[in-house]
């Protein structure tokens, strides 16, 4: 490893933003959510349930942004962003997004839907920090609600990971909907992905529902990297912003 690539670390945040609405869609709070996300000072942010476009909502909500939500969230803090459209309906669409302080050299939205049911995607970003001689491979995911679908999607995720260049760092974050905690073992055995809260504390973090977290749905996995300070941000000022607790961690390469 050259001097250029020694002791490099970055902060990652993941959160399901529920299309910018509070629980039960009572209030549109994307501007408040942006302010909260900025306080974490993450270098890379993985977002799920991001509204890409909607034809009706802008007429009903005064604070609806003029730009796409992922661009509004990136604002001046994250210079690059990528969006992967998954669910499409007559009024608009939503999906996953990645915000990055470093250049996103390449991105693609890989379809991991199973059958004709809910549409799901793996948003892959190849991120190239100037301080590194190699890229960071980032995957932002939101897996299915059915166990059989999730198992198939975990295999697709493992296949994608194994196809990446050997030895380069991989970070996969998002809402895995894995309330039965059956994702860690296959991802570690098949693809060498380790869940950072499990490595640190023995189990994934409780993230849902955020007011009284019981289920361990959200995850951050790494390969060819280390992590420290894994934190579930179930703080008072987050509780009305999403039904999922955000997760953050320092990733060391």
From TrEMBL:
GO terms for cellular component: membrane. GO terms for biological process: GPI anchor biosynthetic process. It comes from the Bacteria. Gene3D superfamilies: Endonuclease/exonuclease/phosphatase. The keyword Lyase does not apply. GO terms for molecular function: endonuclease activity; exonuclease activity. The keyword Transmembrane does not apply. Keywords: Endonuclease, Exonuclease, Hydrolase, Nuclease. Residues 14-244 form the Endonuclease/exonuclease/phosphatase domain. InterPro entries: Endo/exonu/phosph_ase_sf, Endo/exonuclease/phosphatase, GPI-anchor_lipid_remodeler. Signal peptide: none annotated. This is Uncharacterized protein YbhP. It comes from Enterobacter hormaechei.
């Amino acid at each position: 490893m050259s001097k250029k690539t020694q002791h490099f670390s970055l902060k990652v945040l993941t959160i399901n933003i529920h299309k910018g609405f509070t629980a039960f869609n009572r209030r549109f709070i994307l501007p408040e959510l942006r302010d909260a996300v900025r306080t974490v000072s993450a270098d890379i942010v993985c977002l799920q349930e991001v509204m890409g476009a909607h034809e009706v909502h802008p007429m009903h909500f005064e604070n609806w942004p003029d730009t796409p939500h992922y661009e509004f969230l990136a604002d001046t803090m994250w210079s690059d962003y990528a969006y992967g459209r998954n669910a499409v309906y007559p009024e608009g669409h939503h999906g996953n997004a990645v915000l990055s302080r470093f250049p996103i050299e390449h991105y693609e939205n890989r379809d991991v839907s199973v059958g004709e049911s809910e549409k799901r995607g793996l948003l892959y970003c190849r991120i190239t920090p100037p301080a590194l001689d190699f890229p960071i491979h980032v995957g932002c995911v939101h897996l299915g609600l059915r166990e059989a679908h999730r198992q198939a999607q975990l295999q697709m995720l493992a296949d994608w990971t194994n196809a990446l260049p050997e030895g380069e760092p991989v970070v996969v974050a998002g809402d895995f909907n894995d309330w039965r905690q059956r994702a860690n073992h296959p991802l570690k055995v098949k693809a060498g992905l380790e869940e950072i809260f499990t490595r640190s504390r023995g189990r994934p973090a409780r993230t849902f529902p955020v007011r009284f977290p019981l289920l361990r749905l959200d995850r951050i996995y790494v390969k060819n990297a280390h992590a420290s300070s894994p934190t579930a941000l179930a703080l008072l000022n987050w509780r009305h912003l999403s039904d999922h607790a955000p997760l953050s961690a320092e990733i060391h390469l």
